[in-house]
Batch of 4 targets.
Target 1
Amino acid sequence: MSASDAYLKAVATRRTHYAITNKSSVPDAKIEAIIKEAVKHSPTSFNIQSSRVVLVIGAENTKLWKLITETVTKGLEGDHKTHVEGRLAGFSAGYGSVLFFEDQKVIDDITVKFPVYTNEFPVWSTNAAGILQHVVWTSLTLEGLGASLQHYGAKPEVAAAIHQAFDLPTTWTSTAIMPFGDPASPPGEKTFTPVEDRVKVFKA
């Protein structure tokens, strides 16, 4: 197997796991090391290194999802509230979560230096966020952990609650939250549209 074959096999292995447990077969130190390596080596435009990550485990993870649940379900009633609470309980049941952010101050500072790219830097920041999330997700998968990617931090009220609870800089903008833990069950089947319809090749 070539180096690229091994890498692409890892990419294909990554799946969405909604059913996770509050246990981890991977030591905390290893999870932390994976995240630090991913943050260090994932690319950013102009090498501005704008990505930020918060790792919460155990009781801190419970605190995170408790405040998310309280904030998201505020004002909801009946079956709708029950449904949302049930979905969030699945994430709360995990061992930990990885919170991804982009530091807007870093992006604003580089925009001042290169105003010609004012419209591009937010797009490039999104690219950087996605790359980092994929690197972390795939790495956790290779260690046997299950994870999914959630975006509750996009809600201003949730973002404010998270920033206050964990005393985070106000310039950090949430891009995603990744709850993880040992898988409770296999992921569902994944279907694919024909790749021939999604890739075009032109060569002389």
Note: The chain is about 50% helix and 15% strand.
Target 2
Amino acid sequence: MAEEVLSQNEIDSLLSALSTGEMNAEELKKEKKEKKVRVYDFKRALRFSKDQIRSLTRIHENFSRLLTTYFSAQLRTYVNIEVASVDQLPYEEFIRSIPTMTILNIFSVPPLEGRILLEANPNVSYAMMDRVLGGKGSSVNKVENLTEIETTIMSHLFERSLENYQEAWGSIVDIDPLLEEFEVNPQFLQMVSPNETVVVVSLNTTIGEASGMINICIPHVVLEPIIPRLSVHYWMQKEKPKNRDPEEVQAISHTIKEAELDVRAVLGEADMSIEQFLGLGKEDVIRLDQPIDQPLKMKVDDEVKFYIQPGKSKNKLAVQVLEEYQGGAGENE
């Protein structure tokens, strides 16, 4: 255990207090002999480091952005989804924290073991369903009376959203999420033992005027095989540049070469007022700013790139490139 190092000022203050009687040396000895105890709850074991929690937060921030885009397109209304918190706690505590009747989507994530739970607050779920059915997105909580049609609509809506979850995890592991169960009562659901540590990602969700939480419960058994990847060291390795496949480089180069450009030979330009323009008539002459003894300029996508001279090629107007234009990047003349 590392010992606390006192500064010179602190040492002087301590000696002064002992000499004046403000502190008792015997009491200090007694305090040193007393054992310092820190409370530890074995029912709430912390099995993920702060570094790993930060990685999970980063993954689900990406998922929330993808989910916002997905639901905005599906529901055609204002949607905003953000990560509110990422915590680790016993499974039993999570089950007690959610409503007694709610929307529960249980899906597997092969090749990883175990299952993940996505719980959506009824306010949010009913607003989604109302929009899918052509409504304004109003929310009515009647989970215990879900019809077969309502159950099918909700389960399909969340099942299609799992593609975004697969994409969010793509930088860590290639998973294939598959919806297995759809429940409304958490008391009938037993994914893991009550004391099993789970990571709970809470997403603050707004659908039109309705708002609520979407909670993602990930048991430790699911993340255990990939825990070493949830570290800064792994992320740094993933961000290292990789050597591209020569065939891939050739394919990209070929595609770029096939792209079309707007190329124009500029004979000259002139500035005039609207009054002068409206007063133009037959046989009027517009004086350009291009000297006749200087080469013309060629523009590629509105940027001057070459000096050219006009001429003919096979009885057609043409220009000959003289040299590359040496002006500033992006300069238009």
Note: The longest helix spans residues 50-75.
Target 3
Amino acid sequence: MEICAITSDVADISAIQKADLDPIYFCELVPACPINDNGDAHFTSLEVMPKKGPQGEFDISFEYVSNNGTGTGMLAISVDTVDGIPLGDDFLNFAQPAGTYDGTIKLDAKENPDCDPTQGPCETWEPGTYTIHLSVCNGECGSNHPHSAIYDTKTTTFEITQN
């Protein structure tokens, strides 16, 4: 609370917003997050299971290898949908030593009954082919701030069939 009060006294809030401080870069500036500008990561696998099936839950599993370790960053996922509605999410990826890392992201590919179309388009998961893009990044994916880079991006597809 004191930091917010000091910040408000020292700088206009709109100036802070204009500074476009992404959370990872801010964490590095504090400094609370480790920086590794010599880090690396390369995807060795990206799969969706099932590869083909009706609306429902799909598991997106991945593995990447780092030879030099990674800085504080993120994993970012996006889905190219049949109807063109953009979908995506990102996850904090703590700095890691050299090694092999894996994980699974659950994708609930069925219409959300709580979606309010007045708040934006609702994905209906129509039958067709969907493309998954997964990136592992140093810093925030797509950021122009120091200590930010996309280490690697991998793409795969899955198909939703008629129920």
Note: The beta strands are 42-49, 52-53, 56-66, 73-80, 87-93, 99-109, 128-138, 149-160.
Target 4
Amino acid sequence: MTSFDNVLPQRPIRIKRTGVWPGIFRYLGALLLLGLALFFAIWQVPGVADDWMISQDPVLVEDALISDGECSTSRGFFVDCSAHVSYAVKGKQIERDIELMFLDFGSGDYAVDVVRSDREPAKATLSLGLDMLWNRTITVGVMVVLLAIFGLALFRSGLQQDRNRRLAMQGSRLSLVAVPVLQLNKVIGGTVVQYQYGVGKKQQALLTTSRFKKNEAPLWLEEDGTTALAVMPERGAVPVLLDDRLERLDLTAAERAEIKAKLAGA
């Protein structure tokens, strides 16, 4: 069927169920990612900033004591090092806890010394921290920025999702569209259907999902189950998949029968 003109009633139709989750779940995910970005910033940025200052006038502390020093590797390249250092300057005892995070694809132990600032003796770090200063700066910066970008993108996606749900349920003139179905995944209580609804500015496929209950199935346009029918609300950006019994639409029994007859005879 190449044209879907006059298949649907020529009146505003409300979509009773979209099969789309409310945006709240994306908002929670966005808050989690933004919280992680803030955590990494609070955890690492002050230490990196102090070490940049120390690097301007470093002084090796030869009689410093390093305790509880350890480095652990995560995912094969994220290295997290911590140590407690104590040293004396002009008879005043100074103690500091040091945390370092950087990327290193090698392995083995690290030989370190304690280095302090000549101008501010209370600020100290490990020589490893200065050796990896650019590495640490880039690593922390990239992680914080990426987490923040993904969090904001997820929040924006939630806003768009809620807008589409709101437009669908308000009732408007609907347009029938055919959409390629890419995946069907069984979940508890039904099936999640992934489908493509367009192409982005960078020619990437625009994908979304719709959840069907156990007793529901998409309204297939092709018998091989690769293309399904959806409806696009007025001012909508994402079409909503139809179920095979057309119960997602607020229609009368006679209207449903007429639509099915038109589709079957096409």
Note: The mean pLDDT is 88.
